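ligand=heme C
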Amino acid sequence: MKTYSSNLFVIVLAAALLSGCSNLASQNAGSGEQFRPPTLSTATADEEVMSKWSRSCALCHITGEAGAPVVGDTAEWQRRLQQGEEAILNHVVEGFNSMPPLGYCMACEISDFRAMIAYMAGLN
Ligand code: HEC
């Protein structure tokens, strides 16, 4: 039983690594040397995500309302991303000081938030 579950773990891990690598490779093609945290960088902000972003996040993240990190301020975003993806996503979902829970976007999925953060941080 023990062997079975650890084998399964190895297979799952290998699959995760493999898919992660191929995503990264295609993302990084032609994008220079810039460092990109893996999961956020594979999230792309398509039209649907951007329309949600404009209706919610943009209210504060364009002007820096109440101290919100401004879209495209890569230095500030890099600093915030250092706490790790999970922590920053939690702050979006649960709220963080003047950042409202879900950023006023009730229809947003976690994948949307990833893409929005990547967009604001200038990662994609
Ligand atoms: C009402 C204004 C407001 C709206 C709307 C808003 N934010 Fe924020 N956001 C803030 C403020 C203010 C902060 C800074 C909080 C702090 O660091 O004390 C922040 C911080 C953040 C952070 C960084 C959190 C961290 O851990 O440093 C992320 C990521 C973020 N917002 C994403 C979003 C997304 C995605 C949306 C839209 C779905 C959104 N925000 C909508 C005000 C807003």
